[in-house]
Fold:
Amino acid sequence: MIYIIIPVHNRIKYTRDCLLSLDKQTYHNYRIVIIDDGSIDGTSEMLINEFPEVHVIKGDGNLWWTAATNLGVKYALENNADYILTLNNDTIAYEDFLEKMIYWAEKTPNALLGAFALDANTMEPVYGGEIMTWFNAGSKKLLDIIPKNQQKGIHTVTHFPGRGLLIPKAIFENIGYFDENNFPQRSADYDFTLRVCKKGFNIFCNYDAKIIMYPEECGDFHLRQKKNLRKYWKHLFTKKGGGNIKEFIMFALKNSPVYVLPFFLLSGLARRIGGYLIEWFIENKKDNLK
Structure:
């Protein structure tokens, strides 16, 4: 039995579309758990009226992604889940998404499987997994490495986002839950999957299991549009900020190999502090040339 864990806070349209796509799955041995963290846009009423089979856990609006996901995971494990699938509500699953996940899960016991993602605006591949490069605090993207005719089956990665991630229950028994204390909104999925890797479990991107995603709804996309000092501060210091300095340092201390830690910290901090400013400068220059 797969338990699909979806934390939501408003965005009723995305939640409805996501659930409708799950209704069409060719694989049927699953249950859905929504953690509705204080939505005020009619999400609660929509779930009751349109998806009464969905189990809803209520939050007060202060859970954020990680604590909300952990609540769902605990509920799933208490109800004898074999697998937990973490999923964002701003995704649409292909009809054979779960079928393809289970197919490879049965061939790779106790491995994590992440979804292959396509851009909802272009229907082009947008995410196919990464390999961490510790020296420069970056990663090699598999979509840049694997030829198109080989973008099928499963491919090894070092970490993965929680957007469409199938996790066997045994992993939680060995690793524990997502780290909600240090990473309430961002990086908890990468931290979790890197911990999984360190314990010797495999992580793959499953190119056969496809979801559609909206890149403009991910991360701190909105903070990087029409940049200003207020958004720059949010980028560096708030829970939703992609450049959150405190969380990055904690992530580095928890996960980076000791021998590359200074390089990882310096490269990562430079990218977070300076990258936004460089992008801002380039955008202003382009605007002045118009």
Notes: Residues 2-215 form a domain with the Spore Coat Polysaccharide Biosynthesis Protein SpsA; Chain A fold (CATH 3.90.550.10). The CA atoms of residues 17 and 218 lie 17 Å apart. The two ends are 57 Å apart (CA to CA). The mean pLDDT is 94.
